[in-house]
Input
Amino acid sequence: MHKELRQGNRLSLTFRGIRFEGTVVTSGNGLLTIKLRNGYNITVPVEEAIIESVTESAPFQQEKPELLEIENPDLTIIATGGTIASRVDYSTGAVYPVLEPESLIENVPELAESKISVHAMEPLLSENIGPDQWMNISNRVRMSMEKSRGVIVLHGTDTMAYTASAVAFMFEQQTAPVVFVGSQRSSDRPSSDAFSNLSASILFAREDLGETGICMHGGLNDSDITLIRAVRARKMHSSRRDAFKSIGEAPIGRLADRFVSLTGAKRRGDKIRWSGKMKDSSTLVYFHPALQGKDVAEMGQGKEALIIMGTGLGHVSKRLYGPIKELISSGTSVFMTTQCIYGSVNLEVYSTGRELLEMGVIPLYNMLPEVALVKSMYLLGNYDRTLLNDLMRQNLRGEVLERELI
Amino acid sequence: MSGYGVSKIKIGLEIHIQLSGKKLFCSCQTEGYNFHEQKFSRALHTVSGESGHTDPAVIYERIRNRTFTYLVSSNSCLVEADEEPPHDINVDALEKAIAASLALGCTVLPTISYMRKIVVDGSNTSGFQRTAIVGVNGMIGTSKGGVRISNVCLEEDSCRKIDEASGSATYGLDRLGVPLLEISTEPDIVDSDHAVEVAEKIGGMLIYAGWVRKGPDSIRQDVNFSMGFGRVEIKGVQKLTDIRNAIEAERERQEWISELRNRIGNISGKVIFNLVDAEEVFKATGSRILQRARASGLTIYASRARSLRGYLKSGKFRLGGNCLRW
Output
């Protein structure tokens, strides 16, 4: 009988002589959790619970995702999942991805003010999004851009900077802003940042902006939202609302007290120039003092590009010289970035740097390591292999800062 | 059996007791703090609760559309700021909750599960309070018979309200997350003296154990009172003497309402309120209550209160004020 208990069943049971009435929240692992009439939950071992009566009732209300694709929209929202489009599953306590336009619309008045088309892709947590999905998302962004004046992508924050960078590289020129937006608190919480972030993303998506950016909190206040250039954005905190930082430059957009300001952002182009391929033949290595040469050799084997996150100005231990030389001679391009995240590599200062340069290691200025990884996949997917080393050092989408201000 | 000789009187208490030591879901201290200059502001949004339904209080707050400012205290961290998920539960507080449950004759549940109680008046940065039942079905002996204990819960205390204006409220993070024992009795209490005795017995037990946080508001009582016209909850009573006063005042209020009901029932014909929009009449009103109501977007309606002369406000009768509240 216990196995038949389903979420939403009303039941009464006796546990150690005490009678409880309520609704099943979850049943599993030998435990039964019910919600009592007063709203509290109790959990008892199923073996000890004498279940007296069970009545079927409607399961907990789960809003069904309603697709709102419309003709000739002003803006398009592409939902890929993530916390912004998630809610907690009270039967397991875990957050799962789902799109609930009703709850979003109720709390984001801007959604009702514009003609917005919502396209829901298979909801994914962002750790499950990789190069294949970047191509799908970018293709969907391109299709939406052809039909609307702004594109918003709902995305999990963990790997949002990778996807946004991939989309940024794939658009050599764009006719509309592409605004990636996420949240750090799921939208089933009254305090969720999903609503203020989404609301701001709509305002940014209406601007004269020809770039791809990430729209999240700029501080702890709900009224302070920033738009960061995708190729300079990095998630720098695991849980804070203002986790995303614009590394080495000011955000390109800011919404403060309902007022949008843009700084140094590219304007809309007159036509779309897009190449949407990604070649997954690159990898990223984080140097640490115990890293062994054979580990680097294994990671780089068969790859066309190896991005190293070196220490300081771009250094690795002499132990790795051999494997690096071998990789380069076997045709792998080896690039250097800094694990300091802030600042530029410079291989001319110390002897280590000069030795690496002599071996053929290519320094990537202040390009973020993850952005370098994505960029190499984009270049390998769309350009001749012989152009890789040269194009990696060219500033294509603002990924290299020529000046870092004080 | 009632101290008033009126069989319908029922009194129950919810006693909230702050525990000293660390907070319930982080390592911040409950005592000894000061406020920093740092603050941040948030809005709260309508979401459906665990059951998928939206609470009327939640809808009311959405209409108010308020902004909440939080003052950062030295005993608050990212957990209180709702910038980090809760840490593991404070085991010391849990042990005290179990011990208190046992001392009150409760059955302690073998597993406790925390639930979210949606609270969107801004007093919780998350928009909900984490709360769980630890013990059930206890009993304490008193001079007027046994009083059953329905639940002992261990929950997180809310923020302290510092200031409130139209459209905004300011809260301090110092109190948020302090472990709070909520001990609820069944309505077995027979009169106000008895209520004081029960509150003293339960609160005293924890004070003598040395577990209660030091502070003027570390123990707060909610009084549930009913004498046959529905249950009234009087919230946040701090002093023991106030419990007695609150019960007596509520009993008197319900007594004259009851008397009034009988008198109105005897008026020939029915008392009918025909409410009409009276905005024009009150455009330039000097009444501050009405001014405030109009400023917050409410509409004023008026009706002739036929046959109610002397009842709305006269002597002990205060029907007007009660109408307003309802």
Notes: The CA atoms of residues 183 and 362 of chain A lie 36 Å apart.
